[in-house]
Amino acid sequence: MSILIKNGRVVTAESDYIADVYIKGEKIHAIGKDLKIKARKVIDATGKLIIPGGIDPHVHLDMPFMGTFSSDDYENGTRAAMHGGTTMVIDFILQTQGKTLRNALNTWKKKSEGKAIGDYSYHMAVTDFNPKVAKEVVKMIRDEGITSFKTFMAYKGALMIDDGQMVQLMKVVKENGGLVTVHATNGDMIDSLIAKNKAKGNLTPLYHYLSQPEVTEAEASARFADMLDYTGCPGYIVHMTCEGALNAVRNATLRNQKVFVETCTQYLTLDASLYEREDGAKWVMSPPLREKKDQEALWSGINQGLVQVVGTDHCPFTWKQKQMGKDDFSKIPNGHPAIEHRMELLFSEGVNKGRISLNKFVEVSSTNAAKIFGIYPRKGIIAIGADADIVVFDPDKEHTLSVETHHMNADYSSYEGWELKGKTETVILRGKVGIEKGKCKLKKGYGQFIPRGKTSLTI
């Protein structure tokens, strides 16, 4: 299969120019003006952007949580991602405490193999670190291409590891060229506040937010940065939400320390006032939505280079599943549907409103994730020899987000009625058209597992 994309505005993290892009097989073969090449399919991209396929490094597909499972599996979740311009995701494997990493990997392979439509990889969540698991970490990096290891500073008794385990894991990961990522919130403090609110009968979704004040995230982020500094391990804070946590990373730069940071579209666009609504359970996630001042801090952090990636933490549940906590906020499954709207929200709210540049948009939605997680320059760039993961994006197309039109397996939208400007038009994954005229052209199983190497981004 060969494809020629004509007359588009090619935007990467570093460049912006008008050109044609020629695709042969799974790779980009030529880039230039007015290419005299015949192709089986020609796409006229006049007036459109040609950008690298999005990479969302934070999703939870078919994930067990609080006695249920997130409602998007690998087929539906990666399809919805493709509709929004995201061609690759990195999901989280969860080790069961007392069991091996290999057991967890085998479980997630069954969830993904032969089902994914878009490309994917895994982070390995280490919830029970010990000498045997340390040996498995080495094997995951060397043999499986899984080079990032998720840790939790909350959810004691299920996912959390203590600081001693964290430091030992960091030492092993550093020695073998990997990366440690973290859910950075102070679990002990949060558990105490949850218990206090429940004892007082404070059970509405608002108290989910009030039980996780900004200090719980700021303290944990600073502590994680200190442990990284002590061990020399590269690290990445997932789903950062607030000014206090961002300042913890800013302070670490004073000792010339590098800590990678991800935020999510919801923390850039939504705020905690939603928890006071009758349907506030829709936005119960951890960490919770914050305040307007935190949104401004995070947008600024993107431009200052303190925040490198915008993901989603996509972890959808149906309204029936959310109702598990209708009488107790602590029983509401945490997460919301987001994977489909990341690119379009980031463009409409970021680029169109002058908060970020086009180049920064590509950088935080694709290129930096590819570099941090060891898949660059195969992914995250439009260049000769790279995978032909390309989005033809209409910057002027106006549309409205709604449960009636989204492709995620959720019976509500977190952004119902939002009017955006800028829409994904055509999506190509490894040389094949994935999305065209609003339809998915790829069958389940086309998505490949992408093994990863060392971090290549310097900040």
Q: What is the level-2 CATH architecture name of the largest domain? A: Alpha-Beta Barrel
- Tally of DSSP β-strands: 19
Alpha plus pi helix count: 13
Shape designation = globular
Gyration radius, in Å: 21 Å
Average pLDDT figure = 97
Topology-level CATH name of the largest domain: TIM Barrel
State the end-to-end CA separation. Answer: 38 Å
Strand content: 15-25%
Structural domain tally = 2
Tell me the layout of helices and strands.
Elements: E1 2-11, E2 16-24, E3 27-32, E4 41-44, E5 49-52, E6 54-59, E7 64-65, E8 68-69, H1 74-83, E9 86-94, H2 101-112, E10 119-125, H3 131-144, E11 148-152, H4 163-175, E12 179-183, H5 187-199, H6 206-210, H7 214-231, E13 235-240, H8 243-252, E14 260-264, H9 265-269, H10 292-303, E15 309-311, H11 319-322, H12 342-351, H13 358-372, E16 390-400, E17 419-429, E18 432-436, E19 439-440
Parallel strand pairs: 1-4, 1-5, 6-9, 9-10, 10-11, 11-12, 12-13, 13-14, 14-15
Antiparallel strand pairs: 1-2, 2-3, 5-16, 7-8, 16-17, 17-18, 18-19
Report on the structure:
- The protein folds into 2 domains: 2-51 and 389-397 and 419-440, Roll (Urease, subunit C, domain 1), CATH 2.30.40.10; 54-372, Metal-dependent hydrolases (TIM Barrel), CATH 3.20.20.140.
- 31% of the residues lie in helices and 24% in strands.
- It is built from 13 helices and 19 strands.
- Strands 1, 2, 3, 4, 5, 16, 17, 18 and 19 form a 9-stranded mixed β-sheet that branches. It has an 8-stranded parallel β-sheet with strand order 6-9-10-11-12-13-14-15. Strands 7-8 form a two-stranded antiparallel sheet.
- Helix 4 packs across helix 7 (214-231) and helix 7 runs parallel beside helix 8 (243-252).
- The longest helix has 18 residues, at 214-231.
